[in-house]
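Q: How would the C-alpha cells look for this protein?
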Amino acid sequence: MSQKNTTEVDLRFSKLAITVGYRSIGYTWPNPSVGCVLVKDGAIVGTGHTEIGGRPHAEFNALREAGKLAHGATAYITLEPCSHSGETPPCALELIKANIKRVVCPLEDPDPRVSGKGFRLLEEHGIQVDRISCLTKEARKLAEGFLKVVEKKRPFIALKLALSLNGKIATRSNESNWISGNDSRTLVHFLRSRYDAVMVGKRTALVDNPNLNLRGQFSLLPSPKKIILDRKLSLPKTSNFAKNNKNNLIIVHDREYNSKALSKWGEDDVSTLGARVDQRNGLDLPDLAMKLANMGFTRILVEGGGDLATSLLNQGLVDLLILFTAGILVDKEGVNGFNPIINSGATLSESPKFSLEKTFRVNNDVAHLWRPLESKGFN
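A: Here is the predicted structure in C-alpha cell form.
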C-alpha cells in the first residue's frame, strides 16, 4: 500500500469527502457517517454519504450518482470500505464492479470484520490504494462515535452545560431558564441534531421539565432519541419529554424495577432499560454506557444535570466538554455545574487536564469545547 506524498488534489477532495460525511452525522447509527467523492479527469462525478439508519453506505450512493462515469475514477473515502456481507453487498466489491481505478482513504476500519481486509480486497483486484495520513485526525473525528464503540465498547459522550460566570447552572431555588442566551439555545438544537441521543438525569427532567427535541429551524430534522435516567421510576408520565413521539423515549432504571417499568411505561410504547446500581446507590454509568453501545448508539449528548455531569467526569466517561458561559453571576448557594472528586493532595501537574478544541462568542455567551487529555487525578 502506497504511502506516497499527498498531492494538493488528493488533499482537496479528501477534505471534501469528510465534509460530505458530516451531512448525515447523528442519523446513521449504529453505522459510522462516511463520505465519498468520485473524481474523474479532475471533475467530480459523484458524491455520497451514509443514509439515515446507516444504509445505503456512502460508496453505494456515490456510485449510483456517478453511473457509468465511475469507470476509471478515483474514490475519496473517509473510512476503509467494508469487505463483509450484511444487509447490503460489501462496498469494496461495489467499487471493484464499478471499475474504480484508485481509492484514497485516511482511515482503516478497526471493526474486526474489516480491519484492512477492504483495502487488501481492492488491491487484489488491481485497484491502487493510497492512505492520506495527514487527514487521519479529521477522519477519526468524523467517525469518533463508531470508533469509540469498536475500541472502548461504549458510545462517544459529550457533556453540555450552560454556566454562570461563577460556574452555576441554576439558582438555589433551581431556576435555570435561562442562564444562556437565545442564540446559544439555538446552537444547542444544532448540536442535538448531530447526536444519536440526548440524555439527562432525573433532577433535570423533574425541575427543568425539558422537551429534548429539535425546534425552530431544526424542527424538520429527525429528533435524537431521548434517554432519561430515573432509577426508581418516579418521574410523572405527564412530563414534557413523554408527551410526544413516545417511541423515541428510553427510560433507564434500576434493573430490579423491571416489572414496575413494564407496567408504568409499556402501555405507552416507551422503551425501558434496566441497569445495574453502583456502590453509591446510583445507576452504574459504565454498565449503562456498554448497554447503550449494544443498542447501537455511538454518540450521546448529555445535557445535565450537575450530579450526572460530576459522575461522568469522575468515571472518565466524558469525551468532549461543551460549556456555554453566560455573562451572569449566580448566588454562591446556587447549583454547581459539576464538582468532580479530585484525588486529595493532587498537585496541579497531577490534576485532570483538558485541551481546548474551540472557543467562540455566541452573542453575550462564550462557547468553549474541551477534550480530556487524561483521566489521572479523579477518584
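Residues 238 and 279 are 31 Å apart (CA to CA).

Confidence is low (pLDDT under 50) at residues 1-5.

Upvote if useful.
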